[in-house]
Backbone:
């Protein structure tokens, strides 16, 4: 039955063309069988023949005195078939767009289209060398574009993994989906897949469109914090709309090329436009409030919105913007978003360093905290393990510090701690580790090549801490500290051994202090 229908169409075409003036040399005439409207296709000129929604048939007749290539822009939402006068399906040239080699002489063929939506393929008749040159340029430009996308995907994904921030993973997912979408739109898979892979590319194209919108929505909302500032709009409008776009992309893959699929495709396009418009409005408010990175995201989304307007609303105004405007906008947007992401990385690293500093340092006394001192102690133990020498520990505890707090208050107590820490810091070497590991307990750990150097350091610190005058607005007092010293000629088993032995030595000194002021 199908063969009979094709034969009838071909016979109709023969009769139609018998009544039409033959095409001049190096030109083609294409005529739609259903409407009998015809158009002339001249060499290296684009023919703006519009393909209607649904199934349509065209007859093509060419008179050529040289070999030529017949090509056109193919949307992934169409099915296409080229049949010769002998009712044989002609295989296209391997490339990004449908292209057929036409040898010199008379050529006759039937073109069959099935499409979800009306579109203009822009039929062209090109010289062979011109076709090859244009294909090479297109592949070079798009190859650079995909290379940029891959670089951004892996760079941001690795950073996101190291910083444990899902925002960067969402960015990588968005760029991945968009790259696949443009890869299928521009037909680069045609360089590697044959015509039988149409179904695969068609389904992937629709799915990638839905996934691109969905992942972009999640990423922009996460990057700009829209969900925090406008939870109702994001939860009740943006997210449901993004889910709906994804659902429509799946549904359309299951439908035939008909009016319903065309309607759903239009709904999907305008819904995407609406999502971008809402996000642009919200981000504009954030930019006005000077939210970090909001201005960059606003510019990126505005360019993307403009490209979507030319693709969806003003599709017939500019063929170039209709097809390539979105690619240009995406490249510009991805660059600006990469800058916004890098700014976020800087802030996260700064916050991480600040948190690390707060965890490793005692801000009151400007010395290492217990956590920071333990890390430094580990490195000094490793230094002894590799270089030899000895480790020396000074364990320092203020005498009667509780009485200072009880009598004069914690403000005076804090001042005492700050003065003591400053004195110790000025007496030891820069390479020694000084930390406050308790309320009024300080520990110094150093690596020494000679035992006498450590003992000299011990005597200097102990002498300086015997009498410490403290002058504050609340009181003028004098305090002292007990300094225990322990040297480790052999490598200690662990850090706790350093602290334990240092603590014992300090308590021995503290007992001597109390015996000196309260002799038996």
Residues:
């Amino acid at each position: 039955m199908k063969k009979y229908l094709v034969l009838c169409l071909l016979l109709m075409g023969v009769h139609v063309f018998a009544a039409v003036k033959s095409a001049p040399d190096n030109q083609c005439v294409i005529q739609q069988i259903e409407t009998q409207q015809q158009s002339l296709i001249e060499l290296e000129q684009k023919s703006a023949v519009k393909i209607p929604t649904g199934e349509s048939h065209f007859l093509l007749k060419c008179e050529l005195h040289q070999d030529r290539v017949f090509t056109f822009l193919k949307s992934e939402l169409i099915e296409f078939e080229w049949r010769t006068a002998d009712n044989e399906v002609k295989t296209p040239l391997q490339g990004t767009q449908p292209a057929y080699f036409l040898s010199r002489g008379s050529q006759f063929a039937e073109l069959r289209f099935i499409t979800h939506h009306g579109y203009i393929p822009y039929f062209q008749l090109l010289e062979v060398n011109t076709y090859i040159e244009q294909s090479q340029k297109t592949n070079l430009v798009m190859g650079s574009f995909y290379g940029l996308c891959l670089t951004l995907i892996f760079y941001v994904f690795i950073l996101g993994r190291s910083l444990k921030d899902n925002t960067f993973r969402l960015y990588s997912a968005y760029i991945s989906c968009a790259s696949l979408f443009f890869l299928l739109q521009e037909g680069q898979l045609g360089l590697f897949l044959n015509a039988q892979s149409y179904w695969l590319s068609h389904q992937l194209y629709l799915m990638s469109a839905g996934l691109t919108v969905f992942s972009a929505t999640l990423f922009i909302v996460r990057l700009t914090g829209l969900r925090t500032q406008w939870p109702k709009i994001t939860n009740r409008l943006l997210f449901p709309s993004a889910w709906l776009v994804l659902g429509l992309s799946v549904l359309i893959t299951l439908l035939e090329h008909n009016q319903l699929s065309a309607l759903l495709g239009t709904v999907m396009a305008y819904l995407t436009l609406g999502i971008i418009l809402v996000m642009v409005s919200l981000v504009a408010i954030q930019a006005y409030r000077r939210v970090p990175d909001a201005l960059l995201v606003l510019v990126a989304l505005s360019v993307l919105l403009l490209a979507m307007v030319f693709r969806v609303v003003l599709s017939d105004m500019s063929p170039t913007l209709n097809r390539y405007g979105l690619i240009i906008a995406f490249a510009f947007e991805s660059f600006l978003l990469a800058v916004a992401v890098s700014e976020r990385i800087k802030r996260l690293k700064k916050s991480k360093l600040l948190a690390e500093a707060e965890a490793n340092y005692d801000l009151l006394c400007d010395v290492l905290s217990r956590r920071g001192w333990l890390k430094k102690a580990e490195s000094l133990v490793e230094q002894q393990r590799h270089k030899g020498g000895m480790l020396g520990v000074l364990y320092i505890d203020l005498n009667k510090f509780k009485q200072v707090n009880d009598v004069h208050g914690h403000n005076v107590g804090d001042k005492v701690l700050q003065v003591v820490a400053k004195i110790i810091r000025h007496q030891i070497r820069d390479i020694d580790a000084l930390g406050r590991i308790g309320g009024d307990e300080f520990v110094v750990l150093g690596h020494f090549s000679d035992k006498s150097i450590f003992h000299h350091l011990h005597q200097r610190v102990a002498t300086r801490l015997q009498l410490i005058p403290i002058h504050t607005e609340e009181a003028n007092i004098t305090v002292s500290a007990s300094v225990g010293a322990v040297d480790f000629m052999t490598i200690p088993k662990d850090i706790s051994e350093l602290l334990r032995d240092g603590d014992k030595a300090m308590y021995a000194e503290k007992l001597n202090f109390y015996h000196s002021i309260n002799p038996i």
In short: The mean pLDDT is 82. The chain has three domains: 2-128, 165-357, 363-517. The chain is about 60% helix and 20% strand. The longest strand covers residues 54-64.
